[in-house]
Amino acid sequence: SHDNGELATLDCQTYSCQDCDIVFQSKPGLYNHIKSKHKVIRYPCLQCDYQATQQHHLKRHQQSKHEGVKYACNQCDYQAWDRSKLRTHQQSKHEGIRYSCNECEYEATEQRYLSKHQKTKHNV
Q: Are 43 and 54 in contact (CB under 8 A)?
């Protein structure tokens, strides 16, 4: 017989989009996906033609494109419009962080590039 506590920790709940089969780890992730991709709710920028699918995307657009908010790298001339983009830049360009493929010799500077590589080259 199995210990019920052990089963509960192994059971990871996922939430699938019924329209396009994308899987999410949380209900809010699925909800935001459906709202932005299938219900076509748009948040228009009042200063240009940009339309966001989520309100925080519109805010980030307005800050970076119209309010001049930038995050400057302290080691080179790179400027990001988002704090997390600056951190990714610093890790890959200045800290030498690499993501290695466990199937071949490929190394990526960002996790998303490794994921794309593994999907296209190794069907992972």
A: yes
Amino acid at 115: S
Q: Which amino acid is at 32?
A: N
- Residue 32 to residues 10, 43, 70, 100, Cα–Cα distance (Å): 26, 14, 26, 31
Sign for the CA dihedral angle at 2, 6, 7, 8 comes to: positive
Structure tokens at 59: 């805010």
Q: Strand 99-100 vs strand 51-52: parallel, antiparallel, or unpaired?
A: unpaired
Work out the average pLDDT over 24-37.
Answer: 84
Our separate counts of H helices and E strands in the chain read 5, 8
Flag whether the pTM goes above 0.85: no
